[in-house]
Amino acid sequence: MSGAVEAALAELGLKLPEVVPPLAAYQPAVRTGAYVYTSGQLPMVEGELPVTGKVGAEVTAEEAKELARICALNALAAVKSVTGDLDRIARVVKVVGFVASAPDFTGQPAVLNGASELLGQVLGDRGVHARSAVGVAVLPLDSPVEVEIQVELTED
Fold it and tell me: pTM value?
């Protein structure tokens, strides 16, 4: 099933990917009541990380911003895996992003704009959210970025 959200993705030249399989003992997304919480999503493309390393060292801020966009796309796939339909999203409540950062890198908010901007492009006002952008020493698989989202659903 696809609807307006997936049509908006298609207009951007994007297609919802398959859900990234968990790397450990967790689920990609969990629904409780009217909310869906995703696990942290890495910027996996067809099962692989396109880039590894620290932002501000091996990875540029612009590359990392694009990776954050991929993370958000993967998060939407995780949401769809438990809702069946992205058009059920009433709003994105919160985005939490982690950026594996070189010691002197302070541009985490700009990196996470990749995720936030994608959500706004495909969901409009429903994509406006609260957000945290956190710099960390290392992420799983040496990923430069990891993003999780929380969404509220429309009534059944």
Answer: 0.96
Position of tokens 């409780």? 32
Strand order in the sheet with 130-136: 29-32, 35-38, 145-153, 89-100, 130-136
How confident is the model over 72-82, as pLDDT tens digits? 999 999 999 99
C-alpha torsion sign, points 116, 69, 149, 131: negative
Residues 137, 84: Cα–Cα separation, whole Å: 35
What HEC string does 22-81 produce? CCCCCCCEEEECCEEEECCECCCECCECCCCCCECCCECHHHHHHHHHHHHHHHHHHHHH
